[in-house]
Amino acid sequence: MKNIIALVSTIVVLGLMALTFITGRAFQGGEAGKVIEDMKYIDTPKTQITKVEEKNIEEDKLRALRDKAGNTASFKVSNEYKSKCSSCHGGNGSGMQNGKKLMGPKLIGQSEEKLLKDLIDFKAGRKENLIMKGLLINTSEEQLKAFAKEIGQFQAKKDALAK
């Protein structure tokens, strides 16, 4: 009895498959599927919205590229600052890059004297930060003064660009 039911079921399934093949595509399309397939090839004109979106995408790419480069396009910084400081404090000392807070704090707006004192304290180990200590361990006092002087001028450079 089981064999007869299996045989009848197999014949019915094969018959339905043959009927579907003869009449056209099944649920995956049929006539509606042909219409949808034809719609793929219709060229629709680009709308104004698409152009604006493309422009925004290009602006976002440029902004990301500037931020990735250390955001140094705002004003010039030394190669020493770029190599030692910008990855944590940002290319302009803002402590931000691409709208995100970086590891290091904001430096822009601090006085040269405070910056020099902090750098000396980091180098001596009075302020604990292994990254800063590692970066400054082989740095001379003249170099520390140069860093402090350069970073101390960031706010004036930023203000000059804003005018």
Automatic annotation (TrEMBL):
Gene3D superfamilies: Cytochrome c-like domain. GO terms for molecular function: electron transfer activity; heme binding; metal ion binding. Residues 66-155 form the Cytochrome c domain. InterPro entries: Cyt_c-like_dom, Cyt_c-like_dom_sf. Pfam families: Cytochrom_C (PF00034). PROSITE patterns: CYTC. Keywords: Heme, Iron, Metal-binding. This is Cytochrome c domain-containing protein. The lineage of its organism: Bacteria, Pseudomonadati, Campylobacterota, Epsilonproteobacteria, Campylobacterales.
